[in-house]
Design goal:
Dna Ligase, domain 1; four-stranded antiparallel sheet; 3 domains; D-amino Acid Aminotransferase, Chain A, domain 1; Rossmann fold; about 280 residues; 9 helices
Amino acid sequence: MNVLLVGSGGREHALAWKLAQSPLLGRLLIAPGNPGTALVGHNVPVDAGSLELLVDVARREKVGLVVIGPEAPLAAGLADQLAAARIPVFGPSAGAARIESSKIFAKQIMEQSGIPGAAAHTFDDAADAVAFARASSHPWVVKADGLAAGKGVVVADDVEATVAAINQVMSTSAGRRILLEQRLSGAEVSVLALCDGATLLPLPPARDHKRLRDADAGPNTGGMGAYAPVELSEDTFAEIVDNLMRPIVRALAYAGTPFIGALYAGVMLTEHGPRIL
């Protein structure tokens, strides 16, 4: 089977390395890829945002499976276009990918599904957000609603830092709307699961380092490193999967946008139990 992998980051290098080990693989194409992916497959000079060209590549190369790495082409509907062309694809439709492309939508569907998380408030006007933050007299986590390559979240340490973060985030295209979210305390853990739209297969828990510098300092990034597995009790792991992840899969399926692909849950292990970040 020929496989087309879409993306150009470290995630795609890892995926390409693993896909290349499959005895079922024919030719591995990566669009656009990077120097690492070139060592295990064939890079194709097509940007991940060029949806029609990617569909054309899949047709021309007789691709039997497309694996989409980045969030942006998923939000733009690449999986939908491939499905319409009857090309098998691993990655959610644009409708299902809204849980990643819109933090406000994700918060709303989690609240409707009874999934425990941080209290949050939505704003589309910076002055209103600043007034709320000052009146509250405590810091907030400021989140851009849209995709920001993992850099759309600022964890403020005080009210003035919250105000600065509001102005910073809302000056970006991803932050035209924002969430001000309650700060949670505890250890973080990431759980990913492979989903077919109705069921999920959880992978071992992991922990990633988002901050730019050591000792959890500096701004958030798209990820500075990760390790797995993480020491986690079977009961806590089951609680994350059953109470935080399965309800989302059911809700998206009920809404007519079943999630097919890798579902990611960023979780804070608080003193009151696991909470979705």
